[in-house]
Amino acid sequence: MDSGQVVARGAWSNASSFVIRFAARASFLWIAARLYGAVPFGVFSIATAFVELAVPLASLGLKRMIFPWLEEEAPARRPTHVLLDALLLAIIAGCVVATAFLAISVVLPAALVSPGLRFGLMALAPAVLGQVVADIAFAATRWTHRMRYEVIGRGLVEPYVLTAAALGFWAVGRTDVGLLAGYWLASGALALFALWGARHCLGPLDARGWQPDLKALVRRARVLLSPAGSDALTMLAQRIDLFLVGFLLGDAPAGVYGVLRQLRTPILQVRQSFDGILTPLVARTMRADGDVRTGAAAAAATRVILTIQLALVLLMAAAGGPLLGLFGHTYAGALAALVALNLAETITGAFGVSEMILYYRRPARALQVNLAMIAVPVVLTPLLTPRMGVLGAALAMLAAALVAAWLRRHWLKPLGVLNPRLHAAAPVLAALAGAGGGLAVAMVLPGPSPLALIGPALAALAIYGIGIRMWTMARPGALSMADFRVR
User: Fold this and answer.
1) What is the rounded CA–CA span in Å between residue 259 and residue 365?
2) 145-149, long-range: CB within 8 Å, 24+ apart, which pairs?
3) Burial of 215 (0-12, 13-18, 19+ CB in 10 A)
4) How many DSSP H helices and E strands does the chain contain?
5) pTM over cut 0.90
6) What is the C-alpha to C-alpha distance for residues 276 and 278, in angstroms, rounded to an integer?
7) Would you kindly state where each structural domain of the chain is located, as residue ranges?
8) CA-CA-CA-CA dihedral for 91, 22, 481, 476, to nearest 10
9) Cα 462 from Cα 188, distance rounded (Å)
């Protein structure tokens, strides 16, 4: 099996789990945005984003670092005892982080947070513990090469408990707390399922025989602070726009923006589908063949991911208006912001592949990319949102993605990684042609009708597909990832 087949098989396996997860979350998104409304959903979106920002700090990077820990100690100790050590550290850190979370919620000025948002932040602060326990327990199941527990937990247990709880609280008229209470119930169910899966994979807990070495745990905690901070910074870069919208514009615009962020999920998941298999292949290729060949292989992966993502951008641009209308009139005018967010995610996802090389060779540079993706929205969002609303925030994220792409290319030059500047121009040109064709069809087709809804999307995708086909015929290896080293 060549490297292209390896990447394709790994990407398809990951993508199937993402499809299950997105399908399960779609019903919740409709309930939260349509039945609850923009204000409660805005509070929920910001509060859960704070939880997601706190989780990497509380978990101390153990979602990844538990693997070498298990490898080192499992021969001499029960794997379940190693897991209990990790959970003990994370729970202590989680209590500290949740307390800090509560304190921040109390002291945030009234000019930035509404009473509803302040209550939401305080209510969800302790939920950090449930998410941390789930993350570490699921990581332990992956150590045994069993992925189904995390797929079922994240894709079915968590979203369906959240959806059922939200629907139930709405039915009894408790739209003030329904989404927050649903998140609590979903986090608890997820943590219990993760622990059950870890016990099934690792064996009995034998809690009576567990004797943690507190001094050794403190030493480990000090080492784990650095990866925890790096993970939290990455998470902040991914959510800074939502925080800024909530603080600058209020809860209702944050609810609209939260829907837009959820609708970009398929594009985000394209890149995530490749990450699991690309990460070890990049490391192996760098070690065997050097940075220059790795750069060429990463460029090919960029073209593949970009080609898939741009098709989804075209589809979202053509069908996004009616899709947003399903959530209510509050969301119907946000199509331009949705397209801008999808383009930002496309640039970050496709051109971010080369960042893996920086992570291995120049980790400080990779950290600076995340800082740039935080700094650009912090500067631009307050300038753009007063006049443009959520579109201003989306454009700020698009600018941040472009700046980050330029920085990656600039910092890869000293490593000898310098692919042609327009190596990925063909998919972009094909997408522009598809967008033009779709717009022309939309102008010709009459009024609101099924044909008027699907015609532009079909035309755009057809023209795009023809353009990609012509490109691959002219350059047969353009989408080949054979340069990656499999063994």
Assistant:
1) 32
2) 146/197, 146/201, 147/17, 149/193, 149/194, 149/197, 149/198, 149/200, 149/201
3) exposed
4) 18, 0
5) no
6) 6
7) 29-241, 264-487
8) -170
9) 46
Residues 6 or more apart whose Cβ sits within 8 Å of residue 425: none
**Where do we find the tokens 């044909």?**
451
Residue 209, classed as helix, strand or coil, is helix
Containing H/E element for 66?
helix 62-73
d(CA 231, CA 459): 41
Contact yes or no for 43/124 (Cβ under 8 A): no
For tokens 């005018």, name the residue.
333
Which range in 2-6, 69-73, 93-97 is most confidently predicted, on average pLDDT? 93-97
Give the Cα separation of 362 and 354 in Å (integer).
12
∠ Cα 100 101 106 (to 5°): 95
What span, in angstroms and rounded, lies between the C-alpha atoms of 481 and 189? Answer: 40
Q: Which two tokens stand for residue 459?
A: 């035309």
Number of Cβ atoms within 10 Å of the Cβ of 363? 11
Please give the full DSSP string across 372-395, using - where no structure is assigned.
HHHHHHHHHHHHHHHHHTHHHHHH
Question: DSSP secondary-structure letter at 418?
Answer: -
Reduced to 3 states (helix: H, G, I; strand: E, B; else coil), residue 450 is helix
The DSSP 8-state label assigned to residue 107 in this structure reads H
**pLDDT tens-digit profile of 112-132?**
888 888 898 898 888 888 899
Dump pLDDT digits (tens) for 125-152. Answer: 888 888 999 888 888 887 776 777 777 8
* Six token digits for residue 378: 């912090």
In terms of average pLDDT, the best of 16-30, 230-244, 463-477 is 463-477
Q: What's the gap between Cα 479 and its chain centre?
A: 25
**Residue 461 CB partners (closer than 8 Å, separation 6+):** 311, 314, 315, 434
What distance lies between CA 205 and its chain's CA centroid?
Answer: 32
Say if residues 430 and 468 touch (Cβ distance below 8 Å): yes
Would you tell me the crossing angle of helices 79-107 and 178-202 to the nearest 10 degrees? 160
